[in-house]
User: Fold Diaminopimelate decarboxylase from Ureibacillus sinduriensis BLB-1 = JCM 15800.
Amino acid sequence: YGTQKVNENGHLTIGGVDTIELAKEYGTPLFVYDLQLIRERARGFIETFHQLGVKAEVAYASKAFSCIAIYQLAKEENLSLDVVSGGELYTAIQAGFPSERIHFHGNNKSSFELELAFDSNVGCIVVDNFYEIELLKEIAQAKQQSMRILLRVTPGVEAHTHDFITTGQADSKFGFDLNNGQADEAFLKVKDDEYLNVLGLHCHIGSQIFETDGFSLAAEKLMNKISAWKEAYGFHCTVLNLGGGFGIRYTEEDTPLEPQVYVKEMIETVQSFAGKLNLSMPEIWIEPGRSLVGDAGTSLYTVGSHKTVPNIREYIAVDGGMSDNIRPALYEAKYEAVVANKANEDKSNTYTVAGKLCESGDKLIVDALLQPTEPGDILAVFCTGAYGYSMASNYNRIPRPAVVFVEEGQHQLAINRESYENIIQNDLALSLKRG
Ligand code: LLP
Assistant:
């Protein structure tokens, strides 16, 4: 992946930095992010729009991995930002991210969060539901402040990796149903509002998608709706946001397309429907998360105990697990790994890589083909950059790992390792008295 290589000592390097040195300096478990790869991905998306002459915003879906330094990198790379909570918004503002390029999402934004969005002057709020419309109207009125909005709709297209399903009505907690009048009702509630300025529509059809068909079909459905609103109400749509979800390769079972291919297909679909329906070409916004940071992240662990279950399997345990990567336990997600200090040796052994948490399901990789390992080896698990750290927990009171950024032979801490002091910082002593 990206800048990964093996050096003369047989050590895995990332961004020209020896991972064994990183493990020594920063300890394990450790997330290592290859900044060059993130930049390449970001530029790939932006250039594709540019080449095809389509106005766009490429918003990093920061739920995939959020911290101050990644927001600053996103700013450097001219990305916009998708935030889904007051916490992500706050972090982005603290990072100095330009607020006009922040898009605020969520299916249950609180008044507090919406006010924060107004006070921060975010570029756009993606409106999810009728309750939110009422809150937004009240807040905008009270502040006498206008706000650009997109209406999030569920087009009845749901994509899961290779398959996508289309249903008349989508069973989703997100957005206004496009097919049963809800989206129309929402539009009527906001179209003449003094402060809310409807730019267009948003949809997100799923995650880790390998095919383009779902995106095209969703784009078609949204364009038809825009056309209907133009006919009926003279609506001029300026933005079509088609979400994220572009798949990446975790293991060889995964067969994603090049990230740009999804974008090209989307653009062509929108262009063709704009032509057919006699609509002006809207800006196209996308929200990639996983495909920007997923394969740029590698987790380093130290191998500890081994256990052989005769005739069944051999376990090796590492110093992290479901507390820093919940995806195998939650989604049966698959990963590949290498023994980073023996990266040029043959992978001749099969191990099940277990974590250190008190749950039988805490296995990072079942039946991983690896170099023969011993305690003290450093295991590198690939493609953990998306939804790893961001979904980490303190289960078993395990401190969250540190995060390091590497690029061109340099490295820096992006997030400190949590300490035991951090773990108890919000705990209070028992103070209720008995009897
Ligand atoms: N936009 C919206 C509205 C979303 O809900 C999501 C992801 C994205 C963009 C970014 O999707 P991506 O490009 O990263 O696929 N925790 C799960 C993934 C949850 C995705 C939630 N929404 C996982 O670890 O696979």
